[in-house]
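Predict the 3D structure for this chain.
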Amino acid sequence: MSTPLVPRRVAFVGAGRLGQTLARAWSASGVGVVAVASRSEQAATQLAGQLPGCLALPAAEAVAAADLVFLTVPDDAIATVAALLPWSARHSVVHCSGATELTALAPAAAAGAQIGGFHPLQIFSDPARAERLLAGSTVAIEVAAEAQDLSDELHAMARRLQMKPLQLPPGSRAAYHGAASFAASFLLSMLDEATQVWAQIGLPPEAALQALLPLAAGTLDAAAARGLAGALSGPISRGDTGVVGAHLHAFDALGAAHGQFYRELARRQLSLARASARLDEATLQGLGRLLESAP
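Done. Predicted structure below.
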């Protein structure tokens, strides 16, 4: 079977934020999104009403109307939903979870369908904003070994949205997705730590966040321009052991958890400092000993 030049009839099972974003974006690009299903009839009707030629249908009917079906349901529901729907050999079935392995789609594969994963590396808390951010974002694609046609089709659909495909090796999804969290929601954990520390020294949290966000944005811009090691700044990048020691003393005084959090992040910065080749080995080793010192 040759890969279609134009994507086949597409349906979405799940009308949440991710499903809304992808369905609207593909429909606008000329993909025939023919059906939407959801636990919420209102959500399905509302989304289908935004897409030319699309119907809000029960899940089994949406599957029957389509050739390529995206399961944009919560991760824990993928296997359950896949087991309930009437698949056949003419179907391709794709989930959009980052962490869930393709084995969750085993019932579809058993019926002869091609199976795969399509996980956009983007934030979908605001679907309208996410739709604008799809262009230029990376999408992780994985298909079963025998589904090369589906791989070609998903890559072509990614390019329609100006996304950058990333091929995932089998069995890697949990590690891939967990690592991506460090560049996404875990950034909030670091900002939360900073605002907590500032609150303990008497600075209002709302002022802290407004002060820190431009700093975070500047760091990301620098990383995009110069890479991680090239963007490194601060006392570790300069080999300033006096400032690092003062940081440790202050954080330890506020509580052991604050000091430990700083030490762990600072240790990771040492490898970037070494890669930047700005510091001699003696300075790097001195910083390492300082960070290993007990509170």
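The radius of gyration is 24 Å.
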